[in-house]
Request: fold
Amino acid sequence: MQRVSWIGWGICLGVFEKRLIEPELLDRASPEEARPNLADLVRINSNFGGHSTIRKMFQRVVHNGDNFTLLDIGAASGDTARLLKRLYPSASVTSLDCSPLNLEDAPPSKVIADAFNLPFLSGSFDFVLCSLFLHHFGDEQVVGLLRSFYRVARRALLVCDLERHIVSYCFLPGTKWFFGWQRITLHDGPVSVRAAFRSDELVVLAKRAGIGDARISVHRPAFRLSLIAIKYDGP
Reply:
């Protein structure tokens, strides 16, 4: 029995060796279905490591009394913008998403645009941030996105994303009765984890994008990865 158990764990861990990108329900959900899922995402970010990871990242790059501009790509309902405005009241934060529905509750300023065709010149914002966004795309697309985001950033590019791990994969299904997660959340959460990265993979993708000095950190127990690529240590 013990040997069977070890074999099962080995197979399970082996499955997680490579990224697997599958369709998510939110991409084709009606507004009535999407809004509760977006609320779940805010709960997850607020209480289970998303916001704490972002706070730690900005503590590394923002100076006391610093005024800065930020572009948040894939901003969804704008919870990151609200967090950063609380922490840095003088900051100017622009939320960007391709979905008007996602941005419905985001605070101003906000832009509906395609992340693959950013309507901004090089160095338009002090910081460019993308949180829980890159894992939706294949490696070649991620390389192109990182290169583009780095170009638009004047001071630094910041990335926060999921870590591909069996614990994060099991978290939402394992806590569904306690937290009452929505149907889309229960489907898309594990799918996102399977599509997520490990730290060494993110390093390789950043280097392929021409970002050789990216600093990668693993955040546990949040099971988040962060990438900070400083171009100019302002202000």
